[in-house]
Protein backbone atom coordinates (compact mmCIF):
# COMPACT_ATOMS: atom_id res chain seq x y z
CA UNK A 1 0.00 0.00 0.00
CA UNK A 2 1.38 3.39 -0.90
CA UNK A 3 1.82 6.07 1.78
CA UNK A 4 -0.94 8.11 0.18
CA UNK A 5 -3.36 5.20 0.28
CA UNK A 6 -2.46 4.50 3.91
CA UNK A 7 -3.14 8.10 4.86
CA UNK A 8 -6.55 8.20 3.16
CA UNK A 9 -7.52 4.84 4.60
CA UNK A 10 -6.57 5.99 8.11
CA UNK A 11 -8.60 9.18 7.75
CA UNK A 12 -11.58 7.24 6.43
CA UNK A 13 -11.43 4.71 9.25
CA UNK A 14 -11.11 7.39 11.92
CA UNK A 15 -14.13 9.23 10.55
CA UNK A 16 -16.31 6.11 10.35
CA UNK A 17 -15.26 3.85 13.23
CA UNK A 18 -14.26 4.05 16.88
CA UNK A 19 -10.56 4.56 17.55
CA UNK A 20 -10.27 1.23 19.34
CA UNK A 21 -11.37 -0.61 16.17
CA UNK A 22 -9.08 1.23 13.74
CA UNK A 23 -5.97 -0.93 14.38
CA UNK A 24 -7.65 -4.17 13.38
CA UNK A 25 -9.64 -2.61 10.53
CA UNK A 26 -6.56 -1.01 9.00
CA UNK A 27 -5.19 -4.47 8.18
CA UNK A 28 -8.38 -5.54 6.37
CA UNK A 29 -8.64 -5.31 2.61
CA UNK A 30 -11.73 -3.20 1.86
CA UNK A 31 -11.32 -2.26 -1.83
CA UNK A 32 -8.23 -4.02 -3.08
CA UNK A 33 -5.80 -1.58 -1.51
CA UNK A 34 -3.74 -4.42 -0.04
CA UNK A 35 -1.81 -6.71 -2.34
CA UNK A 36 0.46 -9.60 -1.56
CA UNK A 37 4.09 -9.19 -2.49
CA UNK A 38 5.51 -11.43 -5.14
CA UNK A 39 8.94 -12.92 -4.46
CA UNK A 40 11.70 -11.49 -6.63
CA UNK A 41 13.07 -14.04 -9.06
CA UNK A 42 16.50 -13.26 -10.39
CA UNK A 43 17.13 -13.83 -14.06
CA UNK A 44 19.21 -16.89 -14.87
SSE string, helices as H and strands as E: HH
Strand content: under 5%
Query: Total number of helical segments?
Result: 2
Shape: elongated
Using only C-alpha atoms, the radius of gyration works out to 14 Å
Can you summarize the main beta sheet? none
Class by SSE composition: mainly alpha
Q: How helix-rich are the residues, as a percent range?
A: 40-55%
Distance separating the two termini: 30 Å
Give the total of beta strands. Answer: 0
Gist?
With 44 residues, the chain is an all-alpha fold. The chain has 2 helices and no strands.
Describe the structure.
With 44 residues, the protein is mostly helical. Helix content is 50%, strand content 0%. The protein has 2 helices and no strands. The chain has helices at 3-16, 19-26. The longest helix has 14 residues, at 3-16. The protein starts with a helix and ends in an 18-residue tail after the last helix. The mean pLDDT is 88.
What key attributes describe this structure?
44 residues; mainly alpha; elongated
Question: Which helices and strands occur, and which strands form pairs?
Answer:
Layout: H1 3-16, H2 19-26
Amino acid sequence: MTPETSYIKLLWLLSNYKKKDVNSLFLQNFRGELTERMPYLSEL
